[in-house]
Every structure is written in structure tokens, then in C-alpha cells.
Amino acid sequence: MAKPLSPEEISFALTALPGWRFENDALAKDFKFGSFRAAMAFMVRVGFEAEAADHHPEWTNVYNRVAIRLKTHSAGGKVTGKDVELAKAIEKVAG
Amino acid sequence: MAKPLSPEEISFALTALPGWRFENDALAKDFKFGSFRAAMAFMVRVGFEAEAADHHPEWTNVYNRVAIRLKTHSAGGKVTGKDVELAKAIEKVAG
């Protein structure tokens, strides 16, 4: 089972994740795209990454915006290395 | 421009939309699927309906759950006939 990261580990991870923040026990980032289609395409691509990692985001879409929150339910809703890995995969998709 | 519906019109529309409710000035329904993949597939199909109608949901996905809220920004964030039409299209997708 994934272990919760310490505050120091989270701070260190964030240095490699531009635009991400630690908020309410989760890694969070808000994305804005040029259109609803672009936002949906992003979500589908992230969906494949999430499914492959068997680790899934909490996310909200409103038109061209996607707000993402990552935490690990099996670790008491805390941030673990799985969240950091998924955030990195999301950054690659966002390109 | 779409006109806000009256409370009576909203109540009447809800009679044809099982599981939908009127909440915080929006039409709302929470969907639960058998998997994340099924939830994503649902969102993609609804996305095509939304884009075709040029009317888009506010929605949140967590694993196999999708919470949808519909209101019309161009009508002051009130429920209009566009929301009722999109809710009907969503029901068809949910099948």
C-alpha cells in the first residue's frame, strides 16, 4: 500500500510540478484550454494514464477548464507517491 | 438568448427527468457506473452531445461517479430550456 508523503516530501515533489499546489490534503492544479473539445481531449488522455496506473483523479470540468485534485483514498485520503506520479503523467499530457 | 424557466416550468420538466433534482439554481444528477472506464465513456458521449448543442455541463468525476450540474451562464446562471434539453440528451446516453 502507498504510504502518505511527509510535508517535506510533498514540498520537494512540488518543485518538479510547476503550477501544482498542496491544498486540503491533495495535490491540485487548474488547467485552462482553448475550447471544450481541447479540455475533453485532455481528460480522455489523462483517463488512459489514470487507468494504466490504477490511480484516478478527482476532477471537475466547466467548459474549457479542468480542476484536478489528487490524493490516495487507500492511504486515508493523503498524498502518496502515486499522486506525484500521476501529476507527472498529467504534465506530460498537458505538454 | 435562452430565458430562465419559472419554478413551475422547472418542476414540470423534472417530471420527465427521473433522478434529476433542482439544487442551487441548477439541474443536478449524480451517476454511478461499474468502472472508471464506463464513467469516462459516458463523459465522452455526453461531451459530444454538449458540443453539438453548444451547451456544456459542470461536472465532477471521481472514479466511477459523475456528478452533473446544468445551468445557463448566458441567462445569469439560471436554468433554461437548454439545460432541460441537455439533461434529456444525457438521459439517452445513460440509457
TrEMBL record, chains A, B:
Principal EC category: lyase
Catalytic activity, as annotated: (4aS,6R)-4a-hydroxy-L-erythro-5,6,7,8-tetrahydrobiopterin = (6R)-L-erythro-6,7-dihydrobiopterin + H2O
Domain of life per record: Bacteria
EC annotation from Swiss-Prot or TrEMBL: 4.2.1.96
Family: Belongs to the pterin-4-alpha-carbinolamine dehydratase family.
Keyword GTP-binding in record: no
Name this protein carries in UniProt: Putative pterin-4-alpha-carbinolamine dehydratase
GO molecular function, one term: 4-alpha-hydroxytetrahydrobiopterin dehydratase activity
Pfam families: Pterin_4a (PF01329)
Keywords assigned: Lyase
Keyword hit for Protein transport: no
Biological process per Gene Ontology, one example term: tetrahydrobiopterin biosynthetic process
Lineage, top ranks: Bacteria, Pseudomonadati, Verrucomicrobiota, Opitutia, Opitutales
